[in-house]
Amino acid sequence: MKFLVDENLPPVLAEKIRQSGFEARHVNDFGNTSSISDNALRKLSLHKDWIIITRDYDFVRSYINRKVPEKLVYVYNLQSRSAIIESFEKHWQQIVDALKEHELLELNHEGLKIHF
């Protein structure tokens, strides 16, 4: 599995994912993030098989309407950097296991929810 962490999440999240043995990049790794549109990220996810991790609900709408990106982890109601990192660390194995069979996951203050 390969993960693409959107600009609205901390870059350290990509580093934590790499430390767990998976390929991961933060949007900042591509240079000037202002030049990378959501559509470009969706295309990149399709062509490179990246699983997008984001707080941007537009990606959820895009998944529901067009199944793009093919796999998505949507993060919401986790406001601080530390809350995001702690939640990912707590649920990381569940996320990895769920993504083997499911396409849309939601991570929030209540835990991990599997949608599709």
Q: Give the strand line-up of the largest sheet.
A: 2-1-3-4-5-6
Main sheet? 6 strands, mixed
End-to-end distance? 17 Å
Oligomer: single chain
> How does the helix and strand content classify structurally?
alpha/beta
Give keywords.
116 residues, globular
Q: What's the layout of helices and strands?
A:
Layout: E1 2-5, H1 11-19, E2 23-26, H2 38-48, E3 50-54, H3 57-66, E4 72-75, H4 81-99, E5 104-108, E6 111-114
Parallel strand pairs: 1-2, 1-3, 3-4, 4-5
Antiparallel strand pairs: 5-6
Molecular structure report:
- The protein is built from four helices and six strands.
- It has 116 residues and is an alpha/beta fold.
- It has one domain.
- The protein has a six-stranded mixed sheet, with helices on both faces.
- Strand 5 and strand 6 form a beta hairpin.
- The longest helix has 19 residues.
